[in-house]
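Please annotate the following for my students:
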Amino acid sequence: MYKDLSKLLPAASLSFQEPMSNHTTFKIGGPADVLVTPKSIYELKTTLEYCLSRQVPWMVLGAGSNLLVRDKGIRGVVIKISQLNCIQIRGEQVYAEAGAHLSQVARCAASFHLTGLEFAEGIPGSMGGAVVMNAGAYDGEMGDVLLEVDTIKPSGERKTFQRSELNLGYRHSIFQHNDHIVIAARLGLRTGEEQEITAKMEKYSQSRWEKQPLEYPSAGSIFRRPPGHFVGPMIEELGLKGFSIGGAQVSVKHAGFIVNTGGATAEDVLQLIAAIQEKVADHYGISLQTEIRIVGEP
């Protein structure tokens, strides 16, 4: 079915029946029919045109850090944008392609004495994913620094969104509701003292290691924070720290995380999520919503 795609793209950009467990921070997920890793915007555009013309399902993958792929995998084409990772610094502005790791962008900015992105230290996602989710931590978020976002549609049409058009909110942006694919973002930062910037980033990094289960594969915080509540303490109060189903476990370090202690399946995680949701709803009357994206064939 995908022979034509092999004629359009270099062999190095293609992988067939690729286990998605190799491409998510959860280390979970069945195979994708095709994984495309475009090395240029041209290859990305070519892949999108192929999928559109043949009505092949497709999805874009960044660092795979906020994602659970079901055990049967993903039908169609997964486009992994990790090779589109150029970072440019001009004055107090940073231009970063969507595949650049957010923490790498933060460290690059720090090396140029630019402040405002320290909160991103240790966030495991890509720039594209961070924009789509309006990622944040330590009282900072992408919406604080975004100036504009470059995108492409499946048709190949390019558009630049200004900050006022992004409809930013808590873990929300306009890109969750339209078909534009983020390919790069421009950030506005400020000149600061490198020592102060670095010290703040080291502090955040240390805090993450102390409070988050970084020693295990995970997808970060599983649930969105409901208004007026914190998810981790609620789950902990229910005595669910350490509660496991298969290889999936509520972290003993931070109850807002589910970790893969070894060999966890997506079904293990989904059952654990459902169990937590049921207990929280019964005890608190709160319906927890997942923050992670769940994809793939049930």
